[in-house]
Amino acid sequence: MVKKQFGVRIKEEVLKEWHSFCSKHGLKMADHVEKALKNYIKYYEGMMTSVDKKLMKQPY
Q1: Number of H helices, E strands in the chain
Q2: Among 7, 8, 27, 58, which is disulfide-ready with 22 (CB 3.0 to 4.6 Å)?
């Protein structure tokens, strides 16, 4: 649950930052850039999930 909220927060904040940067400089974010950014975020979330699984397997 926490991981899911963390991932959603990352996604929203990264996209918000990028949109505000573009609008501040009078740029429009290209569709392919937004798509690449979302794919990167998805990749990052996948890495977080695999790290969680590895940590769960370790005995404490």
Answers
A1: 2, 0
A2: 27
- pTM equals 0.42
Residue 14's identity, in one-letter code, is V
Domain ranges of the chain: 2-57
Read off the tokens for 36.
């690449």
Q: Determine contact, residues 18/37, Cβ cutoff 8 Å.
A: yes
- Residues recorded for the chain: 60
The span from the CA of 34 to the CA of 5, in Å, is 21
CA atoms 38, 7, 49, 47: torsion sign: positive
